Sequence to fold (180 residues):
Amino acid sequence: MKNKLTAVALAAVVVAGTAAMALPASAATAKAAPTRCHTADLKAGFAMGEDARPEMDQTERQTQAHIWFSNKSTRTCTLSGFAGVDMIGAQGTDGTWSLARSSKAPEKLVLEPGDTTDFSINLLPVAESTPQKEKFVPAKFLVTPPNETKHFTLKWPFGGQILKQDGATHPGTYLNPVGL
Fold:
């Protein structure tokens, strides 16, 4: 009985091995789809070009700041969704403000090694003469890539102050999805 079971098991291994070897060459060389980018795969910063700088010295309309993510890894990865952004204020009364998201639909982006993408933050600046309790003075931004838990800490380089709406349902300061 033992010899028959061994013979059946050996025959199954031979058949399985033959079936695996019968796959087309294209299936054997197909690449796996890229997986999402992790914080360790990326670097981040504020876009500093003239057209990317927010107009913090005007108070009549919204302006935008842009934060970029660059794939510093040696693998292709994907980003999709919204970054998490918590602003830490410079004033003792500011605290931390977790920014709301826009209603824009995110798209899936593929980042090859060295590729960069960004997202924008709509900001509602206010005049320096605005009462302190109505303004938020940004100092640092804690930026978490989509679907991640580790963040980057970025120093706010643009000055100015924002209308404090951290409890508003539809604030004038909010995030847009990565890549849009």
User: Anything to note?
Assistant: Residues 2-21 form the longest helix (20 residues).
